[in-house]
TrEMBL record:
InterPro entries: Apaf_helical, Leu-rich_rpt_Cys-con_subtyp, LRR_dom_sf, LRR_R13L1-DRL21, NB-ARC, P-loop_NTPase, WH-like_DNA-bd_sf, WHD_DRP. Residues 9-106 form the NB-ARC domain. One of its GO terms (molecular function) is ADP binding. Residues 983-1043 have a biased composition (Acidic residues). Residues 190-262 form the Disease resistance protein winged helix domain. GO terms for biological process: defense response. Residues 977-1071 are annotated as: Disordered. Keywords: Leucine-rich repeat, Plant defense, Repeat. Signal peptide: none annotated. It comes from the Eukaryota. It comes from Rubroshorea leprosula. The keyword Methyltransferase does not apply. Residues 435-579, 879-946 form the R13L1/DRL21-like LRR repeat region domain. This is NB-ARC domain-containing protein.
Amino acid sequence: MLQAFDEKDCVYVSQNIVVQKLQEKLREKNYLLILDDVWNEDRQKWESFRSCLSGIGKKVGSRVLITTRTKKVASTMETLSEHMHHLEKLTNEDCWSIIKQRAFGNSSFPSELEGIGRDIASKCGGLALVANIIGGSLWNNRKKDDWLSIKDNNVWRSMEEDGGVLRVLQLSLNRLPIPALKLCFALCSIFPKDFVMGKEMLIQLWMAEGFLQPFSETHLEMEDVGDKYFNALSSYSLFQDVERDPYGSITCKMHDLIHDLAQSVSKSQTLILEDGSGRNIPANIQHLNVISNKGTATTEFGDVPKKLHTLFSQIDVLHSMSTNLKKVRVLSFCGADIDELPAFLGEMKHLRFLDVSDTKIKELPKFITKLYHLQTFRFMDCYRIERPLEGICDLLNLRHICFNNEKLMPAGIGRLPCLKTLQLFVVGQQEGHQIKELRLLNQLRGKLEIRNLDMVRDKEEAMGARLSEKDAIQELELVFGEKYTIQKLQLMGYAESSGSEDRCKHDEDILEGLQPHSNLKGLTIEHYCGKGCPSWMLETKNFLKNMMFMTFDKCPWLESIGEDLSTATCLKKLTIWQCDGLMSFPNLHGLSSLQNIEIGYCGQLKSIGEDLSTATCLKELIVKECNGLMSLPNLHGLSSLQKIKIDGCGQLKSIGEDLSTATCLKELTVKGCPSLMSFPNLHGLSSLQKIEIHRCGQLKSIGEDLSTATCLKELTVWECNGLMSFPNLHGLSSLQTLWISDCGRLRSLPSGLPSCTALRTLGISRCGGLRSLPSGLLPSCTALRTLRISWCGGLRSLPSGLPSCTALEELDISNCHNLISIPDDLRRSWSVPNPACLARLKKLTIGGFSTELKEFPDLGFIGSHLEDLTLIGWGEPGERMLDQIQHLTALESLEIEDFDVLEALPNWFGNLSSLRNLEISNCKSLKHMKAIQRFSKYGRLCIDECPELKKRCKRGSGPEWDCISHIQIIEIGHKESQWAESSIEDDDSEQQVDDNEQQDDDSELQVDDSEPQDDDSELQVDDSEQQVDGQADDNEQQDDDSEQLPVRATGLRRPFVAETNKIESNKRFKN
């Protein structure tokens, strides 16, 4: 679960820590947890797991969905019968459809086989897996006898018995045409169930085990044989979830029953030990995988099997397995917690595959150079190693060398005649590192990245790489140096004064000499300082015919990539990024395969081609920070277009007149286009789900018609001060989110809004011209979860109907300084305790109204379940609010703003036992803090724009300091000074802030380190979200996905969230 949030591997530390982290991630959220294919029948394990789930979140509404193939699991989990859903088995017709598809695809099949095929389908027991496997085993087989042999096999009689399905699946293995295929299939059982296997990795393992012997009548390499074997196993449906990346790299999984089948085929020669539990290993084991899900561990073994060929381990097992490893062919410690390799590994003469990727190893030992049969050596992500291993290129049988740390580039790579995989080559001036090392490596395949091309002297030297002879390379990255120094220029023979002209000429010459083979599918050119593209790209006939992906990145002086790319008929994605000198764009006419165009940070580019009408497969168009761009090409006819994203194009005046043919368009985003004056017609966009329009100051209207956008879910419009009208939203029954902010000339909300009955979030902020809200809006919004109406200075009253919004979880009505009345239904509803409309309310922001609003309901109506409250004063009614909240015992966060006459916090403040965050802002008269002496030491106190209190809370000397010094996190004047200091209670030492971050000595951050904290916890201060008057700093463009609705100008923005051990931030304190 935790890994699903972080999108990275998580090391298991303890159950309590995992639960704590999940609590942080799921705070105030419902979750749906899906446990697929559960086999656990141990009630004690389930009770332990259920206890963890109850600790993660107590919010009502979370659900757990479980799939299983046994009723006993459901019984173990005490599933109620009404919550149990039994899936029906497939019909015979369904099974026949699967068999027919797997055997013949879309081609025709002999009619005489249909009856036999239907009989076989009837024997599959309604199981899709069986039908799939049997159909795969008959792939492209039109022999009647073969079909009959399966139909009449006696094994079908065991279908209903235990293990019967496996015996039926064995039929497919018996039909494998080559005996070695069974060995390859059986070896896959060394991986745990549901493991994602890479095709290249599998082939390298099969090769190391000796399973890939080239056919005598062919000239195939072992890798080619492995490719055929993989395809054969796939065609037999023994692999599932087969995925291919754009360059041909393939991954797959095995169904768990197929995994069981692989284990049965291996005849108990494969063993997986989980969590490193020590035990004796059976003598017949040849393939062993030791897995740990609990971080660092060691395992003590008994006698190691003498026939052990394969050892995978995530933990340190070598200290107890120093004997009987001489026959091992495959050794993988990928991700293991080891920092060195023992010397006896040098005696493993049969070793053909070695993987030490992602370990803590600090150096590659010399004895590796004695492993003369080594075929594959992988040391990816080994960043603790500082120097390469000398002599590695003497291993003449080495075929695959995989690393990504450029410090580890071995010298003399050109001496490896069998080399097939070299993903990275780093050019240097020393012998053995020059680009000529690539000259004879014509068997290279897959991906090749060449770095430091600035170290190549001239065109002739570049031509020495002979890239045009390497026809198996699919993806090529050519990376020049990031910076040219005077020393580098002199080293290359250029005069110090030659400057940019020589740099440009040098790069152009080098790139000209690096012509690759026309089989290339992907080309990336990075940090190139030439002005134009090489002739082989622009003039060589058919060079681009196979090109699918082309990228130019950080090429600051590049002016053109040619006039015509029409020969790149297979091109799917074109990316041009940070090419600030780019002035012209090629003609894209005829690129019917093009799916993605991404252009960013090309400041001088004025147009993007002339015609995209033939790019009928185009799905995404992304243009960012192209300030010189005046117009976009005609987008008419692009029926496959799904996403348009335009951001930071300061001179763009229009984005086309008509998008009506873009019927697949799902997302339309236009940001930071202050010159944009017109918006295209959006009629007919029935697939549109999201519209974002931000910072388009001259835009006066948004299209003409949205009535056909029946799938629209999100509409946000921010900082469009010229906007005067909205299209009619009538009939948008799918709309869930509507944010409108900083639209000062907008006089009314869009018509038809009351018909948007699915609306869950409605935010209206900083719309000073808005005089009223539609009267029928709120009664229809029964699904509304978040309502925010703030900083609307022209608003004098609220609409009726708020009591109908019974699903509200967050309500913000604040800083509408001309608001003088509230509707009668709201007054009546709030006059009784716990009104229905607030039954789910967790967060409330209220106040900042006109002083003419004299009567306001007592806040006693708020239910005690409220967790987050912000009170903003507005004269006498506002001042009274503070004494009306002492019943909110569940309150975790409280903000108090603009209470002008408040001199001391009420004594009952200490009764708010759940309070962890207290923010006080702009309370000019506040002096006394005695009431918070019982405030949690693990909490956070923030004081801002309170001049009297700031003086009295001065660290160590202020009269109120003793009242607050026990609190873990204290900020004083944080917003004013943007500086914080940390101190440790009962310790004279102070953590020093980096010199470049120190600003104001009066601001203070106090931290109590008396409690033990995690070693990895960091004390940080985040003021990246601070805003003044609700406006983001113009110099800091927010990331697309991080923008938030502008907030109160005088209110605190919560610069960071207080936690016991960690404060999220972008500033770090150092001891």
